[in-house]
Design goal:
- It comes from Nonomuraea rosea.
- The protein is globular, with a radius of gyration of 15 Å.
- Strands 4-1-6-5 form a four-stranded mixed sheet.
- With 157 residues, it is of the alpha/beta class.
- It has a single domain, classed as Nucleoside Triphosphate Pyrophosphohydrolase, CATH 3.90.79.
- It is built from four helices and eight strands; from the N terminus they run ββββαββαβαβα.
Length: 157
């Protein structure tokens, strides 16, 4: 089956708690539900949005945490990736921003789109050490490096 090509410019939000852990979501591609993975919060920019505004909107839509665009620091990484998801062959330009959240930031999937609710099954806070030692799949694969940069206060160069 031929995949539908899609190009997206995305903002990835990295909420960091008071223990220097990043919040990730766990889910799957509906075409491959047997291969779940951990992933960062975020999505495509909408017309008229800045990347930071997109990160703030996606953070609220995907995990129920409210923040303003000004709350984000970064960027901590910029890359272009290609992957397949459902019927799409996606080329994604992605920029990573971080924000510090409280120790007890409540996570809610209430505002997700239905397809996100159907394919996102869990969330978890991850430390650098846990990312470096896990055998579980997570994206981006260099997230531990990015998280170290966030915690150290060094923005993307």
């Amino acid at each position: 089956m031929t995949k539908i090509p899609l190009h997206r410019v995305t903002a990835r939000a990295l909420p960091i708690d008071d223990q220097d852990r990043v919040l990730l979501l766990y889910g799957f591609d509906p075409a491959r539900p047997e291969q779940p993975f951990w992933f960062t919060i975020g999505g495509a920019m909408e017309d008229g949005e800045t990347l930071q505004e997109a990160a703030a909107r996606e953070l609220h839509e995907e995990v129920g945490i409210r923040a303003s665009a000004d709350d984000f620091t970064g960027p901590y990484g910029i890359s272009t990736i290609e992957f397949c998801w459902a019927e799409y062959a996606i080329t994604q330009d992605q920029t990573f921003f971080a924000l510090w959240v409280g120790a007890n930031a409540a996570v809610s999937f209430e505002h997700m789109e239905q397809i996100e609710k159907d394919t996102t099954t869990a969330h978890r806070w991850w430390s650098v050490e846990e990312l470096e030692s896990t055998q579980e799949a997570f994206f981006p694969e260099d997230l531990a490096v990015i998280l170290r940069k966030v915690v150290a206060g060094g923005e993307f160069e």
